[in-house]
Amino acid sequence: MSAKCAFISLSLLLMTVSGWSSPARGKSSPWVGKTVVIQSFTEPVQYLGQRAMLCLMVDRSKPMDTRAVQYKIVRGLADPRRISFESVAHSGAYLGHWGFRLRLQLKSDDAVSRANATFEVLPGLGNEKGFSFVAFNYPGFFIAAKDNGEVWITDNPKKEKATFNLVRLTK
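-> structure tokens emitted (171 positions)
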């Protein structure tokens, strides 16, 4: 299948998730088990992807392996009331931060690694119709894109760069 056909196929499968809300504190997320794409709220052609295990915003209009922007939401590795994002392209690898840079990391029994890959979902900082993700082990540090496309956790993000849509893949 060509990259263009894969993009069209992915586009046909996408459904923006509306009506999802953050779970009440102490409750499990209703999103667990869903496969999603994490889309920039203000730049809808930008998806959270990965290259060489580092996370960055990728332009969906350019040829790519569509699995590189897909994540399965699972119970938080460090706290089952939170969430973790497992890569579809790299089974067993999760979005996590190391040195504040977002990257894929293999699942580990190490408590720090599990905490680095666990996030709380909040209403979007830049728009409450979107979502923002707070690092479990760094309260107040949000996943945010930099102007160069790199993705980090930071305690002082540009609000619009720390706000995302969750787009559910449907069959």
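The longest strand covers residues 35-40.
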